[in-house]
Amino acid sequence: MEGYQCFGCAPQNHNGLQMTFAEEGEFIVSAWEPKDYFQGYYNVLHGGIQATLMDEIASWLVQVKLKTAGVTSTMNVRYRKSVPIDKGTIRLRAKLTGQRRNLADIHVELFGPDGTLCAESDFVYFTYPRDVATEQLHYPGYKTFFEE
Question: What is the pTM of this model?
Fold first, then answer.
């Protein structure tokens, strides 16, 4: 969509994270290459960026698995180990862990370049009815997420 500049996933937003995603069974996954300007302490990925990465993949889970749009209601992050920014690709995966009415429970894990679990978070997402997602939030539809 013209003017689309999502900080998390828009490929043309050169100041953003430019995340990409894939569906692997019950998971939504992402492999992301950190850049040095996302550091907090020297050579360590900033905790706020880690939280943003996890929030973004949770949003994509809602859009792909639940086929609608949603917004973060709560987010509980646990930082377990620092994430180096100079050792390679960071991997994330998100899984739906529960649903009740319009609320979705999502668990996200963030793995460092060596495969170690570095952070994880539990989300509650408020999800919209599909017509509201489409008409008001520009949800493009499930198939759009798989176009090249």
Answer: 0.94
43-93 pLDDT, tens digit each: 999 999 999 999 999 999 999 999 999 999 999 999 999 999 999 999 999
Other CB atoms within 10 A of residue 86 CB? 10
Q: How far apart are CA 59 and CA 71, in angstroms?
A: 7
SS3 42: coil
Radius of gyration for the alpha carbons in the chain, expressed in angstroms and rounded? 15
For the sheet containing 70-79, what is the strand order?
22-24, 27-32, 90-100, 103-111, 117-127, 70-79
Topology (CATH level 3) of domain 22-146: Thiol Ester Dehydrase; Chain A (3.10.129)
pLDDT tens digits along 10-53: 899 999 999 999 999 999 999 999 999 999 999 999 999 999 99
